[in-house]
Amino acid sequence: MKKTVVIACAIVMSALVSCGGSSDSQPANKEGFTAIENEISSKFGAEAYFTDINITYNESIGNIVGVTVTNDPESLKMGQWNQTQGNWQQNQDITIEIPEGTQAKDFMFQLGKQVSLSKLGELIESAKTQLTKEKQIENPKLHMASVQYPNNGDELSAEYLIILQPENGGTSFSFRYTLSGDFIQLDY
User: Fold this and answer.
1) Overall domain count for the chain
2) Which structural domain range is residue 80 located in?
3) What is the tens place of the pLDDT at every residue in 84-109?
């Protein structure tokens, strides 16, 4: 009996270590955002459809992940969820409207298909490097990263938005990229 309990504990601890912790403690880089993507996929399923994903960093509680998601796009019903400190909570139910003659999934995206949080994490690293080089801001921190998916369903207009701030606060710097990772613009 003791041997079975020890083996079960070892398996659970191994799984926790290999997962790298919950989304709230993941770093703002490719590996951290890959872990966040895996956690979202684990929660909602690999075939889930989203209209938005937003990751905000808060100094005292870590990453806050917000999603609007459905597993049945044609139902036109979605749930808005937030994860804070490892706990997922649904905030509200949403019913969407789409133009006649279109399909709901044309206005949504899937992780690992149109959108990659791994790519978003990679772009955060690039944006930090660019900000340090161009504006001499050392150790910029992620304030927010999100997928900006257009309401008109035009996937070519979809963007990643990254907002960085200096380590001690101050001016925000907004970086925009295409879904393929091409730099669009820096605003501040």
Assistant:
1) 1
2) 2-187
3) 999 999 999 999 999 999 999 999 99
Buried b / exposed e along 143-168 (16+ C-beta atoms within 10 A): bbbbbebeeebeeeebbbbbbbbbee
pTM for this predicted structure: 0.86
Give which of 49, 55, 17, 50 is closest to 36, Cα–Cα.
55
Cβ-contact 88, 82 below 8 angstroms: yes
CA distances from 49 to 53, 114, 117 (A): 11, 11, 14
Burial grade of 27 (CB within 10 A; 0-12, 13-18, 19 or more): middle
> Would you state the pLDDT for residue 181?
96
